[in-house]
Amino acid sequence: MIEFALITSLSTLAAGVVLALALRRLPTVRLQLVGLALLAVGLPLAAVILGGLVMFHMHEDVKVLAVAAASASTALAAALLTGSRIAHRIRGLESAAEQLSSGALEVRAPTNPPRELAHLAETFNTMAANLEELFDARRQLVAWASHDLRTPVASIQAMLEAMQDGLASTEEYLPALRQQTRTLAMLVDDLFELARIDAGALKLELQDAQVPVLVSACVSGLEAEARARQVRLESHLEDALPEVRCAPEHVQRVLFNLLTNALRYTPSDGSVVVRAQRRASELEVSVEDSGVGLTGEAQQRMFERFWRGDAARTRAGGGAGLGLAIAQGFIEAQGGRIWAENRAEGGARFAFTLPIARRPAAVV
Predict the structure, then answer these.
(1) Is residue 110 part of a domain?
(2) Which of 69, 101, 133 delimits the end of a domain?
């Protein structure tokens, strides 16, 4: 009789272990916990039924207790196995979070099942990747800004020392000092604008405006520079364009920046054209030039701050490489989008969109 009880207990224990291992293959924590609950209830219930049959036929209470103890032990073992696996996965996530908080931005959590923990690990890894990219961008920004600030500061310092030592007169260096001071002021303003954009603190006062008026103001302001560079500057706008909802001053800054870049990189006898046309619920404004165009990398990275990878569009033409990044921030803050591409006819095309005003334009 003791042998029968021992065999029954071991068989129940083996069945419980096998079922507990099978629970680990279930894809979600919820299913694993449901299976564990069924196992914890089913095995003792089966043991009680089996023990009742044994007691009824053999009148042995000890055997009933042995079978019940075996089934309870099996349920406990299954719970420990399942709980240990889930706890191990959670400890992996906890360890990754601790490493990330201590500054190890390259750490990633394992993405093994069950599904809920795998999804949590994937979300954690995405957050870690974004943080790593953000800190890398911040380090690059500090390095590039320091470089661009150092050049005019060093130039100003050298000119001041020359004047102090009597090697040059004030009148000789005054225009250059003004230019370098203006360069510093523009760079500081650009960095301030970028900081506001990154912090989400850029507040724009939107109003209904007419794009032809904004385009005309920018084109008129750059006509003299276009003539000096022997570049044709024109505007081709669709008739009866609707009003747009925007911040007019910021749109003009974006358009002025795009036109300045286009003039700078367009050879003599070339052309720069501003176009505007309606696109569904948006108005598309584009600046097209007949220059050398953009490389594939430039099209992807043109709006990154300080990026100067395109040999045809380097900082030799002026600027710190922040204008397009700021332009992107301005346009997106107004509910639009901006992009760069090559023209089929040759040259580059920069375009941005603005939302059309809800109310119709007033009839003049």
Answers:
(1) no
(2) 101
Please tell me the number of Cα atoms within 13 Å of 25 on its side-chain side: 5
Which element (helix H / strand E) includes 331? helix 323-333
In a domain, 106, yes or no: no
pLDDT per residue over 42-79, tens digit each? 666 666 666 666 655 555 555 555 656 665 666 666 66
Out of 144, 177, 198, a domain closes at: 198
Please write the tens of the pLDDT for every residue from 338-364. Answer: 999 999 888 999 999 999 998 654 443
CA distance 353 to 118: 39
Among candidate residues 326, 342, 185, 356, the one with its CA nearest the CA of residue 250: 326
| Spatial separation of the C-alpha atoms in residues 114 and 28, rounded to whole Å | 5
Using CB atoms within 10 Å of the CB of residue 259, give its burial: 0 to 12 exposed, 13 to 18 middle, 19+ buried: buried
Total domains, the chain: 3
Domain contains 66: yes
For helices 29-58 and 61-101, what crossing angle results, to 10°?
170
Provide the whole-model pTM.
0.57
Q: 304 lies in which domain range?
A: 207-355
Q: Which of 328, 341, 227, 244 is nearest to 287 (CA)?
A: 341
Position 318 in a domain: yes
